[in-house]
Amino acid sequence: MKLxxxxxxxxxxxxxxxxxAQLDNDGNPxxxxxxxxxxxxxxVVLLGDSGHVVVGPSPERISVESPDxxxxxxxxxxxxxxxxxxxxxxxxxxxxxSALILKKLKQDSEASVGPITNAVITVPYYFNDIRxxxxxxxxxxxxxxxxxxxxEPTAATLAYAWxxxxxxxxxxxxxxxTIMVYDLGGGTxxxxxxxxxxxxxxxxxxxxxxxxxxxxWTNRIVEHVAEQFRRKYGSDPLxxxxxxxxxxxxxxxxxxxxxxxxxxxxxxxxEGKSLTVAVxxxxxxxxxxxxxxxxxxxxxxxxxxxxxxxxxxxxxxxVGGSTHMPAVFDMLKTVSRRTPSRELDPDEAVAQGAAxxxxxxxxxxxxxxxxxxxxxxxxxxxxxxTDVNSHSLGVEITDPADKTRKSNHIMIPRNTPIPHKxxxxxxxxxxxxxxxxxxxxxxxxxxVAACTIIGDFHITNLPANLPQxxxxxxxxxxxxxxxxxxxxxxxxxxxxxxxxxxRDSGVTDSGLVAFEQLARDYQVE
Length: 525
Description:
Layout: E1 7-12, E2 17-23, E3 29-31, E4 41-42, E5 45-47, E6 52-55, H1 59-63, E7 70-71, E8 85-87, E9 90-92, H2 94-113, E10 116-123, H3 129-141, E11 145-151, H4 152-163, E12 177-184, E13 189-196, E14 200-209, H5 214-233, H6 241-257, E15 263-270, E16 273-280, H7 281-287, H8 289-306, E17 315-319, H9 326-336, H10 349-366, H11 374-381, E18 384-388, E19 393-398, E20 406-412, E21 417-418, E22 420-427, E23 436-442, E24 452-459, E25 471-478, E26 484-490, E27 495-501, H12 509-521, E28 523-524
Parallel strand pairs: 1-10, 6-28, 10-11, 12-17, 14-18
Antiparallel strand pairs: 1-2, 2-3, 2-4, 5-6, 5-7, 8-9, 12-13, 13-14, 15-16, 18-21, 19-20, 19-23, 22-25, 23-24, 25-26, 26-27
Helix pairs in contact: 2-3, 4-10, 5-6, 8-9, 10-11
């Protein structure tokens, strides 16, 4: 997307915390501070009275508010057509709630750098196209020209290479490095293996879970202490939304304390009764061992799929606030047989990498006119990247072994370098078939119900008396911009049909315009 006049930034729109960064005139990625003087803003939205919205309210403010007015972890709902929040008679979508967070980041940062117009926003590598489009829509609602959506591990790799002084350099040997980025945030998880030189980045393999993150570790403490309360007093403190909200905040703090201390007390108050439980780091690690194992399984799978032997791995880079947990560090040290790197700030690296990516796009379009030094622009223009698709693309077919069953036939497996194009031949199912339905799927399993339908079209006006088993050719292509195209041709009569899938979402163009106006009407602090 073309840049507009104004400042260009990178944004990490996180599940629990969000951040905004920009390259300074000397080419250094700088995290910009919010109105509280901090470089990260809690991704929590308080919907107050008369259209007054507070983004990142303090725990004290949350404790006196109705849980009905608090929205947390909205990133996990991105792209959902079933989740909504009714506020002042209006149905707010995940895109709109996320836009309020982006609006807060934008207006706070504008106090120091001036009007912000263009932004690169990060997403987990494992976000599907629907979630990516929802993120793009959130940026538009917030008044941003979203020039790109970039994967969080890619952003972290850019930040890592820049921090090492390697990115864009052409004055020395182009030594190739291979790193693994382990990104465990508040609500999502990715692990990615990247091979890079100073001027080119190539993703080898990636996998993750958009419903696994620090929130799940916190909830284990919540359930652990609440169960002891139930046993002692016979009542369930989590049945009360206000108690659950306040107590979860305390358990979140306890989780953070356990990263640096061996033990911490956790207090629970409900219906005039109180309970204090001493939670040790050992207790915490035992009750969350299965969560950590899930990330280990994914890590080992990605290493295997990348084709890289451990001896060929130069570095394991930690990203995401949840990597502060010592058990994560110890597990990765065991799996990789090397000490993981904490050189990047796990809370700010993704936003800073997004800022670098934004600056690369800005440098390519600037034509020499830019606030950045010409030496910086020259370095940035040298950088390119090759990504892989994070989800397999397939087509619905009739199962050859069971004619009554439909299955997903994968044509472009995940971790295929993009752009990519492939053609395969299929057959008609019945004699004298009148039309052919082509359903395009995104997913890893054969069960169609477990996949996402991303396209649905028909080839019509087939030749009369077409024999069963007549050939049909389907061509699937996935370009570097994320556009997916499918072309189908019945080869006997040369009847054709095609579809281009540009990221879709539950918000229509008219809905986006209405949300943009509504976001302008709300006072965000």
